[in-house]
Design a protein that fits this description.
By secondary structure, this protein is α/β, with parallel strands linked by helices. 33% of the residues lie in helices and 25% in strands.
């Protein structure tokens, strides 16, 4: 065999696993057809967060007068935000490229396909590589609605490539990606309308926090049309028409550009069927060790459709590596935080209240609000709440949902508590610094 492991795809699943495998002394090859860093670094997490930050600075400057800071007429050049985003991406890309040049890692540039249980073919058979283990980490790509004119819309990648913004935009889909773009564009003065199929935005999130965020985004100028099914996109002289069915009634809205943000689907490399790798509705099927139906072939990250988040891809890579090296993994794949980087942020871990009800779990739910938190009040960011769900059987935390400033960071202490199997009493008893936003989490824990 040429290698111990061949990893296909250098996203956060693949490159983190390659780095760790090499650290553990495994001879590792990683094959990438595009830029290292994958969707996350090049067209996903990082560029969106760079733009979210620009939008946040803009909102802060606009609200500075409330603190006696006069900035005169505020102008915002979106092309500068696009340059900031590109610089951040480039810097991190260089960092990942450097990581992939570490001893023990061979980075192969090309398109990989599966040619057997231990063989990977590069660029249609130009050369082949063999390994004891193959890890498929090929990620995902945007889904499109099967409607006339869908090709007239933009994908998230195309939206990120814009260097100037239209006056009026439609965001099709009120999921995480749609909400982050809606928040960014609205800050830059774009008239944004979100068309969402479900009754509430962000379907996987707790209804309370999702509703809270929608209300705040509405205040920021974003319009929402919910329970609406987009049926067609048409071209007009000045842009596009988005046709949709609102509770059975056909309607239309005009915009210059429309972003299709209705989810993502796995990117499957060639050769899976011939090799006997089973693929299900969500993606490549895997067991709890991330192994596919073919022993020795693993699938991690978005491609297995289990949890389409960058840190979940990385964690799954660690689970697969532990299995390959015959070690026990301590990673708990059931406890994964997720966040929406709007202003305010949304973050969650564990079950929602609706899921607890559906599963008839014996739980208690308590809420607290940022308006009574000294730090949030000082920051002028009092919109939002913390909602905690605790098991009545053993007082462990079943879920936590936060809408508020720095929610994506705040959720982490709850993740830690859940990982350690701590009770809500442990969280309440731990001394929290004052004045901090984390006291809002502790205040809710104290209610139990
Ligand atoms: P990817 O990152 O998609 O990497 C797969 C790699 O495989 C790619 O580089 C691709 O070129 C390569 N590849 C594919 N096929 C082949 C082949 N045949 N041969 C060689 N190479 C191949 N997640 C978060 O956790 N937080 C966020 O804030 C967040 N924001 C997002 C914002 C946007 C706009 C989008 C689109 C996604 C966001 N995500 C976020 C999701 C996150 O990007 C993905 O969950 C993550 O990138 C998945 O990692 P991965 O390693 O599985 O795949």
């Amino acid at each position: 065999m040429d290698y111990d492991i061949i990893i296909i795809g250098a996203g956060p699943g693949g490159y983190e696993m390659a780095a760790e495998a090499a650290r553990q002394g495994l001879n590792t090859a990683i094959v990438e057809r595009g830029f290292v860093g994958g969707t996350c670094l090049n067209h996903g997490c990082i560029p969106t967060k760079a733009l979210c930050h620009c939008a946040q600075v803009l909102r802060s400057v606009r609200s500075a007068a409330a603190y006696g800071i006069e900035c005169g007429t505020v102008t915002a050049d979106y092309s500068a935000a696009a340059r900031h985003k590109a610089a951040v991406v480039e810097q991190l890309r260089q960092g990942v490229a450097q990581l992939m040049s570490a001893p023990g890692i061979t980075l192969v540039q090309g398109e990989a396909s599966i040619a057997g249980a231990h063989t990977v073919s590069i660029d249609g058979g130009k050369h082949t590589l063999t390994a004891s283990h193959i890890v498929i980490a090929t990620g995902s790509e945007p889904r499109n609605l099967p409607i006339p004119g869908a090709d007239l819309t933009m994908s998230s990648g195309e939206a990120l490539a814009m260097t100037s913004l239209p006056q009026r935009m439609c965001v099709i889909g009120g999921g995480v990606i749609g909400m982050e773009f809606a928040g960014i564009f609205a800050a830059y003065g774009v008239e944004v309308t979100v068309v969402e199929y479900c009754k509430e935005i962000l379907p996987p999130f707790d209804k309370d926090v999702a509703k809270r965020l929608r209300t705040v985004l509405q205040k920021q100028g974003v319009k929402f049309i919910t329970q609406a099914a987009v049926t067609a996109i048409g071209r007009t002289a000045s842009g596009l028409t988005v046709s949709y069915d609102l509770k059975g009634k056909p309607q239309q809205l005009e915009c210059q550009k429309a972003l299709m943000a209705v989810g993502r689907k796995p990117v499957l490399p060639e050769g899976l069927e011939q090799a006997g790798v089973a693929v299900g509705r969500r993606g490549i099927e895997v067991d709890s060790h991330m192994m596919t139906s073919v022993p020795g072939i693993y699938a991690i990250g978005d491609v297995n459709g289990q949890c389409m988040l960058a840190h979940a891809a990385t964690a799954q890579g660690m689970v697969a590596l532990a299995h390959i090296t015959g070690k026990e993994s301590s990673v708990k794949l059931g406890i994964v935080p997720s966040a929406v980087f709007t202003q305010p942020e949304l973050a969650m871990v564990g079950l929602t209240e609706e899921q607890c009800k559906a599963q008839e779990l014996d739980v208690t739910v308590k809420k607290g609000f940022f308006r009574s938190n000294g730090k949030a009040l000082s920051m002028g960011e009092t919109d939002g709440l913390v909602k905690m769900i605790v098991s009545n059987a053993d007082r462990t935390i079943v879920g936590c949902h936060i809408c508020g400033p720095h929610a994506s960071d705040l959720i982490q202490e709850v993740v830690m508590a859940m990982n350690a199997g701590s009770t809500v009493g442990d969280l309440a008893a731990a001394i929290h610094g004052h004045p901090t936003l984390s006291e809002a989490v502790q205040a809710v824990a104290r209610q139990f």
